[in-house]
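Why do we care about 3D structure at all? Because function follows from shape, and shape follows, mostly, from sequence. That is the central idea of this module. The next example makes it concrete: a single protein chain, its amino acid sequence, and then its structure expressed as tokens.
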Amino acid sequence: MGVNIGELLEPKKTSLEVLSGKIVAVDAYNTLYQFLSIIRQPDGTPLKDSSGRTTSHLSGLIYRTTNLMEKGIKPVFVFDGKPSELKGKVIEARSERKEEAKRRWEEAKVPEEAFKYAQASARIDAGIIEDSKTLLTYLGIPCVQAPSEGEAQAAYMARKGDAELVSSQDYDSLLFGAPIMIRNLSAPRKKAKLEVVELKELEEKHGITREELVDIAILVGTDFNDGIKGIGVKSALKLIRKHHSIEKLIAESEIEKTEGIENYELVRTIFLQPDVTKSYELIWGTTDEGKVKEFLCEEHDFSEERVCKALERISMPKIKQKRIEQWL
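And the structure:
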């Protein structure tokens, strides 16, 4: 879900060609959810192999990720670790929503309704993660295991200079300090256009710091706190620009330390001092075509012709370096 600060942003359109030669830290869970929700049969059923195992995520990885590689983009997939205890309420609520969506999907009689509820019921389990990492390894794409939030780890790698952009659908990447984030990287081009957001530009536009942006998000509500009922992002921006911090808002009686922001110091720490690892290697290997075909075609019943065509596209990627000012 992420934080709802979209009204503060002015995303800029870009293209895969402009990103050629760039290292992109991909929020793996976010991307896999995209694949699992979008890549489905007309009745909402996910793609499956003859053993009944879901393969929608593998389809997304082989066909859409190889499209990125063909353009010369160098993705690295960052996987979530153990979530913060503060996220427990959100995880529980999501689980309940997915169960309700699954029930409605099973009861739906109109195809469009069935597909909508089927999308909302998508889940990631250990098998999906394991298969995803296996395929990415065979493709020569590095994977990084985060100790906690994948977006936090990806943002850390970008700040350190080991990646140039963070790919995610959620704006939490900016709160974690990603200098530049990109949305819709793996989405179908006809349905969603690529767009980028630069943290520095956001700060300068509104005259705020990243720390103040985090406090704005806390007032509105994040995955780690509910926020204050009745305060939207524009109201939160106005309050923080005037008082600069939640502490001063409370001290000057603009708000109370009430339910929804009672743990704001802890939430702030999660964003500004996240749990990340410095121990990772980013090595792009050569695609092992034999193992890719064995894994997808023999184990999961993919079309060998289609898989071979995807592999042909990445045999000679076109890499054209662009200067940073040409990205946006």
